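Quick check before the chapter quiz. The format below is the same one you will see on the exam, so make sure you can read both the input and the output lines.
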Amino acid sequence: MTRPFPEELRERALERFESGETIRSIGRALRISPSCVSKWSRLKRETGSLSPGKIGGHKPRVLSGELAEWLRQRCHSGPFTTRGLAAELLARGIKADHRSVWVFLRAEGLSYKKKRSTGRAR
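Here is the expected output.
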């Protein structure tokens, strides 16, 4: 991932913008995108700061805590599919897609294997 532009460059661009220079000429002179200048001026106007926002981070999992315990018990109680579990969660008022259920099951080491048939007829 790329790093944000330094605040010093942002300040120089806004000084030029406030002095009346056009956004395109600022972009050419500082070798940045003209849209950066307009976005930085909006950021300064809305927040009063030019510091970049947070990049990356961690999104907490929906399936954790009490809900995770219920899901573990449900998996041990009988057959299931990821889509079926997602539907059961939705019925309980929890919006979780089958992919997030799959990630949870994978992390917990839970799976449901169908029993094989006794054999092929010869």
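If your answer matched, good. The helical segments are 7-18, 23-30, 34-47, 66-77, 82-91, 98-108.
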